[in-house]
Structure formats: structure tokens, C-alpha cells
Hints:
Elements lengths: L1 H15 L7 H15 L5 E5 L5 H9 L4 E5 L3 H14 L4 E4 L2 E2 L4 E7 L26 E8 L1 H8 L6 E4 L5 H6 L2 H5 L6 E5 L1 H5 L4 H11 L1 E5 L19 E7 L1
Parallel strand pairs: 1-2, 1-7, 2-3, 4-6, 7-8
Antiparallel strand pairs: 5-6, 8-10, 9-10
Amino acid sequence: MKQFLNVMRRQLRRVSQPPEPAAFIEVERAERIFYLRYLQKEMTVFDVGANVGEMTLLFSPFVAEGSVHAFEASKSTFKRLELACSATERRNVVLNHLALAEKAGTIDLNVYDETLSTFNSRAKRPLKNYGLDFEPVGIEQVQAVTVDDYCESKNIERIDLLKIDVEGAELQVMLGAERMLRDKRIGCLTFEFGQTTYDMGNSPDDIEAFLKKMGYRIRNIVKGDPVFPGRESVHAARYSMHIATPA
């Protein structure tokens, strides 16, 4: 009887504990599935933090009669983005060697080795605290504009998808899109959350409050997963992608 009760207790503990949030590969898969279902041929898409163009090249054929505006801050990574788009002859892609930020000017970008370009960030990241033993190889000063100013200069009335993956500075990009968001001229945002968010000095509460003020609601891109998994601290934070749409 005692052995039976112990088994039952273990089973009850497993049932009562919330499931683990999705792993990295599951998040990536859910993100791509979302884009494939959401995108339509005449849409305008912003790929903010385009890196070498993986998402830009994914978006391009699905918005064949629309456009993809790709933004990459790092000089060397932007060159690789240019080569990728040139080789595939994507004529509906507009390439921008720019950072999108909360205000126009210049930003300091911490740049890593070319093989680690996905870590390039405005944040000074304590990667050794996370068990990653590498450092930036330099700092680049990059021209920055806001989403609002860019749209005004290009006569862009609406962004159907604003995808933001800028290693922690997602909120800063959103702040620079305040006018477009307030007017509900952004149909959908997708953005990353994780330890990088905290490294940049941002928090889930900041993001949530701003988007709520703009009239947008947030959900995890993985169905059933919580908004901002591990939101209580930088060490608990789990990599995840979120969707924000007008409430």
C-alpha cells in the first residue's frame, strides 16, 4: 500500500506541474508555420534584424506583389544579406543598412565574430553568466531611424507584418513605431523574448504595458505556451516568439 501511495503522489505532482515551454526548435517551427499561414501576396513586411536573410527570403515569394523591407545593422552581415538577395534575384526586397530604434541618430552595436552574427546586439551581454564563453570582437556605430520616420519617408501607409528580432532591443523598435501602432496601421508584430530582453534593460512588464497602451494584445506563437515564459527573472527567461495584434 505504501508503495502504491508513493507512485500516486509522484503522478499527482507531474499532473499539477505546468508543462515546460517549447524548446528552441519548436518555437522556430511554430514561427515559420505562422508566417506561411498569415502572409498574402500583396502585403508589406518589415524584417527588422534580417541578419543574412533567412526570413527575408522566406517572406519574399509569399508577398510576391507586395514588398519586404529588410533592416540589418551590422556592416559585414549586411554585405552577406546583399549577396543572398542578389543571388536569388528577389525584386520585391528593399535592403536597408540601418538600425530601427526608439529615435533617429546613431547606436552602438556590439559585434561578434561573423559565425556568431546572430548575437550582435545593442546590449552588453553577460554571456559568460549563461555558460557561453565568447566576447564581442568590436563595436560599430550604426545609423538609426524610427519605423514611423521610415514609413513617412517611403510613403508606407501600412505594415502588415512587423517582425522584430534584434537581440533584446525589441521594445526600442516598438517605441519608434508608436504613431503607426496607435493608428492601428501595423497589422501584426512578431517579436523575440528571452535573456536578451533583460540584458538590454527591458522587461516583459514594459513591453506588455506599451502594447496595451497602443491597443494590442499579445500571445505566444506556440499555442498553449504562456506569454513571456520565465518572465520572473533573467535566469528563468526562456527563448520565445510572440504575436501582437490589435485588440
